[in-house]
């Protein structure tokens, strides 16, 4: 489904990603872990099509097509979804207006008819109940004044409403309480199917207990320095990134300390 | 003959039908002298620093003749397809001439009056004579003097104590485009006695698609608003002239104790446009809220000049003006709140926020405070920026194309100015008008796939 080959990315002429290789097949779950500043969000944002991230080398194929030639909204319509590490506040655009506009724009790009307004609102409300998001948040400005956890849950609501093919979750688990984490995991599990794939950027093993990854990759200094099965996440949680890394030029990194709210 | 020269020969041109009233003739002559005593403003004057009216003063505008059949039909079409559609009373004017067949008027009960000003000269002379010119001053206001020297028709609203109109009054001023340059001077005189309440909307419309040979048109309205103790007025102004429609307007307000004015001013189009809004808070507890929204494109020019005088203690003024400026358009905001020495416990707030959508768009903003009392709460601020890039990317990442995303963000920015309006047809229609204007503006841009700084 997704094939990243020797991807290099710079921002403001600073090289951040230096030759990433990653193959994600339909139905798979991949976890990307790694120290702060290693380039995880850069990879996620580049895949989503952020114009500030300049691709300096390599290519990305998504469902056989050249992903990098598509702009951000075309990628979304093609089924790519990024749950932001820091969801953006959009004052004055209500959550419901946001969702409706997004969905209809995607449908229009795919040549599908607009959704019936009643079907749409029924669907959204059902998914809000599933995520236990207060219905009042539908009529507030998108993410405006939402708590950290509400913002993350709202990203997953968008995922459920927009029904993408490849979802990239950038630290959606950070800042969630235990129950919210379970709901997010349940929401994402409901989204999973043999045709869909998932990339989870996370610092913690906890989410991976609910969403067991097929592969775990360690990103450091803009490179994937290790890959393994689900057990690698557990090992990293216990030992940190430095103890067992084969890369000798990696600078010393502090071990991630989990949030104490979970 | 240029505007300046022509205006100095005014006496000879006094319209015969009202020159018969000696008091009115005297009023106009005095205004004419006040106008002649001032120069037409130039960029050298601080108050006119950013608004060049030279092209106006060099155009020979003649008095607009009464409309012919073609203009009447066009006005009817504009009224049905372009104008706000509000319940209640409506007075329609074409190039300053009242059109009874396009209006919706009924006699108000008791002492309340709503009628064309020309009719009021005959039927309500005492009212007009008593109030005309009472809420304005000529010094520094050449166009108020000009309107007073030339006024012929307009609107008179008089509400006696505790008279509350539940339906809005819609005053529609349509300026037809054509090969000749015309000028009109609408005058509105609004008096609300103690406890009275009303909503009045002034709407200025030109032709949405003017013909190719369209000449410059000029509208120079003046509104006087007198609010007695505890009177409440919602005053709306929608300015949507064509690109050849120039507009220099004054709104002068005098407020008594505990009176409330909520003014909402929306400018969507025009050539060279200026609004001078002057509010005097004369007694304790008077409150004014001035909200404004301007959406400028092409080569439009809009100058909003506000001045609020806190003359006595315990008054409150709140200003929120927001602008969205595109292409080569230019906006000017100048808001001055003056807190006079007796005006302790004044509360004066002013905010002006602007979005510039193109590199060539320009805003000159200057919110000012002049405070001569010590126990006051005052604040003012201005911002100028572009659309938030992170927000645009976020919307794009959810599948929204650039025009949709831009329209959504600009509309959200704009609609904040309508929040204080209560739900109802006026708010709905202003919101719809704002939405369509911005969607059209955003849709006219090529879809940008890279950065937009
Ligand atoms: N706009 C920018 N200008 C300069 N450097 C940037 C910019 N954006 C990101 N970087 C740098 O790129 C590097 C990678 O950042 P990135 O956000 O991808 O890290 P991350 O792995 O997601 O970290 P975290 O775990 O803290 O979220 C960091 O050193 C960061 O400072
Ligand atoms: Mg990150």
Automatic annotation (TrEMBL), chain A:
Recorded hits in Pfam families, A to Z, give: ABC_tran
Q: What is this protein called?
A: Fe-S cluster assembly ATPase SufC
| Entries under InterPro entries matching the protein | AAA+_ATPase, ABC_transporter-like_ATP-bd, FeS-cluster_ATPase_SufC, P-loop_NTPase
Origin: domain of life: Bacteria
Which key words are in the record? Answer: ATP-binding, Nucleotide-binding
Q: What does the similarity note say? A: Belongs to the ABC transporter superfamily. Ycf16 family.
Annotated CDD domains: ABC_FeS_Assembly
From TrEMBL, chain B:
Q: Which Pfam families match?
A: SUFBD_core, SufBD_N
Which residue ranges run through the membrane? none
Domain SUF system FeS cluster assembly SufBD core positions: 181-413
Which stretches make up the SUF system FeS cluster assembly SufBD N-terminal domain?
22-170
**Please, which domain of life does this record's source organism belong to?**
Bacteria
What residue stretch is flagged as signal peptide? none
**Family matches, as InterPro entries:** Fe-S_cluster_assembly_SufBD, SUF_FeS_clus_asmbl_SufBD_core, SUF_FeS_clus_asmbl_SufBD_sf, SUF_FeS_clus_asmbl_SufD, SufBD_N
The Swiss-Prot or TrEMBL record describes its family as follows: Belongs to the iron-sulfur cluster assembly SufBD family.
Name assigned to this protein:
Fe-S cluster assembly protein SufD
């Amino acid at each position: 489904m997704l094939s990243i080959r020797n991807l290099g990315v710079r921002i403001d002429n600073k090289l951040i990603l230096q030759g990433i290789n990653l193959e994600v097949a339909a139905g798979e779950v991949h976890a990307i872990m790694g120290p702060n500043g290693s380039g995880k969000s850069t990879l996620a944002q580049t895949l989503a099509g952020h114009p500030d991230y300049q691709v300096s080398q390599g290519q990305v194929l998504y469902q056989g097509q050249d992903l990098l030639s598509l702009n951000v909204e075309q990628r979304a319509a093609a089924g790519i979804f990024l749950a932001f590490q820091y969801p953006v506040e959009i004052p004055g655009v209500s959550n419901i207006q946001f969702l409706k506009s997004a969905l209809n724009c995607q449908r229009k790009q795919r040549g599908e008819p607009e959704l019936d307004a009643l079907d749409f609102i029924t669907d959204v409300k059902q998914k809000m109940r599933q995520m236990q998001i207060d219905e009042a948040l539908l009529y507030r400005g998108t993410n405006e004044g939402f708590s950290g956890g509400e913002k993350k849950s709202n990203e997953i609501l968008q995922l459920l409403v927009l029904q993408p093919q490849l979802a990239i979750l950038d630290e959606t688990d950070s800042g969630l309480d235990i129950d919210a984490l379970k709901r997010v995991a349940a929401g994402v599990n409901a989204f999973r199917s043999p045709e869909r794939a998932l990339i989870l950027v996370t610092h913690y093993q906890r989410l991976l207990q609910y969403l067991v990854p097929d592969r775990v990759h360690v990103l450091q200094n803009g490179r994937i320095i290790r890959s393994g099965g689900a057990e690698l996440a557990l090992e990293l949680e216990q030992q940190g990134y430095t103890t067992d890394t084969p890369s000798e030029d990696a600078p010393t990194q502090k071990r991630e300390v989990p949030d104490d709210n979970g | 003959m240029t505007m300046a020269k022509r205006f100095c020969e005014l006496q000879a041109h006094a319209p015969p039908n009202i020159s018969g009233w000696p008091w009115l003739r005297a009023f106009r002559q005095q205004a004419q002298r006040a106008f002649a005593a001032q120069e037409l403003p130039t960029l050298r004057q601080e108050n006119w620093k950013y608004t060049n009216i030279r092209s106006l003063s060099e155009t020979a505008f003649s008095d607009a003749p009464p409309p012919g059949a073609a203009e009447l039909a066009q006005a009817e079409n504009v009224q049905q397809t372009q104008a706000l559609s509000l319940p209640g009373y409506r007075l329609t004017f074409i190039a300053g001439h009242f059109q009874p067949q396009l209006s919706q008027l009924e006699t108000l009960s008791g002492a309340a009056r709503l009628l064309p000003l020309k009719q009021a000269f005959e039927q309500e002379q005492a009212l007009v004579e008593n109030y005309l010119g009472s809420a304005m001053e000529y010094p520094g206001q050449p166009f108020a003097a000009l309107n007073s020297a030339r006024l012929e028709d307009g609107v008179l609203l008089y509400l006696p104590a505790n008279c509350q109109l539940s339906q809005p009054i819609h005053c529609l001023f349509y300026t037809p485009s054509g090969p000749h340059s015309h000028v009109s001077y609408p005058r509105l005189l609004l008096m609300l006695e103690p406890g009275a309440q009303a909503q009045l909307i002034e709407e200025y419309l030109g032709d949405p698609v003017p013909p190719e040979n369209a000449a410059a048109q000029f509208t120079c309205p003046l509104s006087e608003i007198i609010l007695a103790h505890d009177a409440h007025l919602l005053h709306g102004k929608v300015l949507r002239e064509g690109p050849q429609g120039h507009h220099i307007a004054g709104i002068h307000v005098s407020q008594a104790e505990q009176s409330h004015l909520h003014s909402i001013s929306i400018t969507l189009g025009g050539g060279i446009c200026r609004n001078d809004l002057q509010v005097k808070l004369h007694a304790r507890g008077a409150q004014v809220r001035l909200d404004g929204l301007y959406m400028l494109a092409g080569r439009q020019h809009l100058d909003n000049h506000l001045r609020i005088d806190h003359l006595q203690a315990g008054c409150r003024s709140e200003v929120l003006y927001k602008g969205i400026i595109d292409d080569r358009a230019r906006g000017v905001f100048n808001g001055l709140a003056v807190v006079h020495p007796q005006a302790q416990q004044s509360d004066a707030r002013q905010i002006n926020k602007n979005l510039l959508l193109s590199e060539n768009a320009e805003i000159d903003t200057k919110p000012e405070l002049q405070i001569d009392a010590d126990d006051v709460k005052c604040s003012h601020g201005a911002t100028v920026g572009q659309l938030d890039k992170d927000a645009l990317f976020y919307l794009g990442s959810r599948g929204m194309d650039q025009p949709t995303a831009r329209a959504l963000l600009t509309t959200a920015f704009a609609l904040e100015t309508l929040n204080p309006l209560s739900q109802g047809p006026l708010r709905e229609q202003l919101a719809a008008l704002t939405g369509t204007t911005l969607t059209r503006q955003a849709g006219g841009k090529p879809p940008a796939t890279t950065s937009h700084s």
